[in-house]
Amino acid sequence: MEMTKSELRKAYLERRSGLEDTERLMASHWIFENIQNRFDLMNKTVSVFLPIEKFKEIDTRFFIGLINANFVVPVVEGEDLNHIRFTKDTPLKISPWGIPEPESGPSVNASDIDFVLVPLLIFDLNGHRVGYGKGFYDRFLANCRKDCVKIGLCYFEPVEKIEDIGASDVKLDFCVTPEEIFTF
After folding, report:
1. Partner of 152 for a Cys bridge, out of 77, 113, 122, 175, CB 3.0 to 4.6 A?
2. Contact at 8 Å (CB) between 36 and 69?
3. Whose CA is closest to 141, among 163, 164, 120?
């Protein structure tokens, strides 16, 4: 059964809110185990989101300390995402959106990013994703290099097809779940 992004967003926000903390942390661990086994991130520039705790997003924080990569994290500026260089010691503040963001740091151009770990609620078998519906990541991904690898992270297995994909929706190259890596 096909569903719209709005229907999927509502269903998967509810489903994700029902995850227990231990279940969420174990799923995050297995997702990053899969990433480490498949992708060579060593010395690459990797965009990684910091989890919004109240939305029970995949916990990316421990991953940052495990991999020798040049991490950057998104900062919302107006309608766009800027990226700031990040280490596990970077001081954070909570944005008006509830997102942990670096207090300051050097900015990094989208064209300098090799991999993007993309937050999402659910994805389909064609590599399309449902996020929170504001289009921040689609606008950012459209400005990345063609060879930048876009990897979605998801707790759940994909739906068959998202009904209302638009021209501005940017496809993923891969999506990693606790059980599997999907290639598009």
Report:
1. 175
2. no
3. 120
For 51-99, give the DSSP string: P-GGGT----HHHHHHS-SEEEEEEEETTEEEEEEE-TT--EEE-TTS-
Q: Which amino acid is at 46?
A: V
Nearest Cα neighbor of 141 from 151, 129, 152, 150 is: 150
The model's pLDDT over 117-142, given as tens digits with 9 standing for 90+, comes to 999 999 999 999 999 888 899 999 99
DSSP state of 49: P
Report the mean per-residue pLDDT for the chain.
93
28 burial type by CB count under 10 A (0-12 exposed, 13-18 middle, 19+ buried): buried
Domains defined along the chain, listed by start: 5-183 (3.40.50.10420)
Sign of CA dihedral 130, 43, 87, 62: positive
Query: Model-level pTM?
Result: 0.93
Count Cβ atoms below 10 Å from residue 98 Cβ, excluding itself: 10
φ, ψ dihedrals at 27, nearest 5°: -60, -40
Task: Kindly report, residue by residue over 22-32, the tens digit of the pLDDT.
Answer: 999 999 999 99
